[in-house]
Design brief:
4 helices, 36% strand, elongated, disulfide bond, Sperma_CUB_dom_sf, Non-NMDA_GluR_Accessory, CUB domain-containing protein, CUB_dom
């Protein structure tokens, strides 16, 4: 009987330890649309000085998204630990977003590897702060151990500075009209952070009848490989000169990035950016310009004339050479 009593006592002690070592923090957009959070504040929700696991849940209204930006990140790592590959054995922070009816893991971070800016495409983003070290050890170091972040609940994609017209009938559609701006910039949602998962965005260009659209990518990081199709579960960018899905050009992703400027065939142009519910990347940054077709044709004519001149020069040289041979 004594042995059984000891076993029960050990199990109860372990249960109490696990309950005391965990904490839950729920942040709802009903009270605050934006705010700040620190690991120090999270520590107040548990009285344990032992290693802990704390879950931070950011919950918005059904039509809201959540953005998270880290302003400081330095988690404790013992001198004998190598965190270049895995974070599971040291203090770490992980992030999950809701995709459909399930939570999908984005990544986990440790040491001084600051997480990129995060954005959800749904109304739930969850962080989990796991500490393998004791509170006393973390507080005994001279370094500023822990993290600080800023969060924000919003209904748009935080892309107001892109100077595009937002189509409220669609979840993610931006229109660029040459009557308002003849050139400008465009980028993926949350750039240069990780773009949201499971999103479908359209960038529509409307020019005058005599105009075409020129798009040049300064930065391109879209997750995917091979032909960027559904079989490879790749995110992708796709261009179309038509409002339907017919006769679209090739897809771009991964190493299959645009090698040079993209030029439309008419004054209407559509760029589609589609992401799935797995893996992430930091998106794209590009600039566009509406160009009149006359100017583009002039540039082609100049190229043709230049080529003809080179051919004429070579022919003239051959004739001159034959003439000299005949004189000799």
């Amino acid at each position: 009987m004594l042995d059984i009593f000891h076993v029960i006592l050990i199990l109860l002690t372990q249960y109490v330890y696990e309950a005391a070592s965990e904490c839950q923090l729920n942040i709802n957009s009903e009270n605050f649309k934006e705010g700040q959070l620190s690991s120090e504040k999270i520590g107040r929700f548990t009285s344990s000085s032992l290693p802990t696991k704390c879950q931070i849940s950011l919950q918005g209204y059904p039509n809201e998204k959540i953005s998270v930006k880290f302003t400081h990140f330095n988690l404790y790592v013992p001198d004998n630990k190598n965190v270049t590959k895995r974070c599971t054995e040291v203090d770490n922070l992980s992030a999950d977003v809701r995709v459909g009816s399930r939570l999908s893991r984005i990544d986990e971070w440790c040491g001084k590897r600051t997480p990129p800016n995060l954005m959800s495409s749904s109304n739930l983003l969850q962080l989990e702060y796991n500490t393998k070290s004791s509170k006393a050890i973390r507080e005994s170091t001279n370094d500023d151990i822990g993290f600080r972040l800023e969060y924000k609940f919003h209904t748009d994609w935080n892309m107001g500075t892109m100077k595009a017209k937002v189509d409220k009938r669609k979840e993610c559609r931006f229109s660029f009209n040459s009557s308002e701006h003849t050139n400008g910039k465009l980028w993926s949602a949350n750039y240069p952070g990780l773009y949201p998962r499971n999103m479908y965005c359209e960038y529509i260009f409307h020019g005058r009848n005599d105009q075409v659209v020129h798009i040049h990518f300064e930065y391109f990081d879209i997750e995917g490989f091979n032909q960027c199709d559904e079989t490879t579960q790749s995110d992708y960018i796709l261009f179309s000169n038509y409002q339907t899905h017919d006769r679209t050009n090739r897809r771009f992703c991964g190493k299959t990035a645009p090698k040079g400027p993209i030029l439309s065939e008419s004054n209407y142009f559509r760029m589609i950016f589609s992401t799935n519910d797995i893996f992430d990347a930091t998106g794209f940054y590009a600039h566009y310009q509406f160009i009149t077709q006359e100017k583009s044709q002039i540039s082609r004519v100049k190229l043709t004339i230049s080529t003809s001149c080179r051919r004429f020069s070579f022919s003239s040289f051959l004739l001159l050479f034959l003439y000299v041979i005949l004189l000799l």
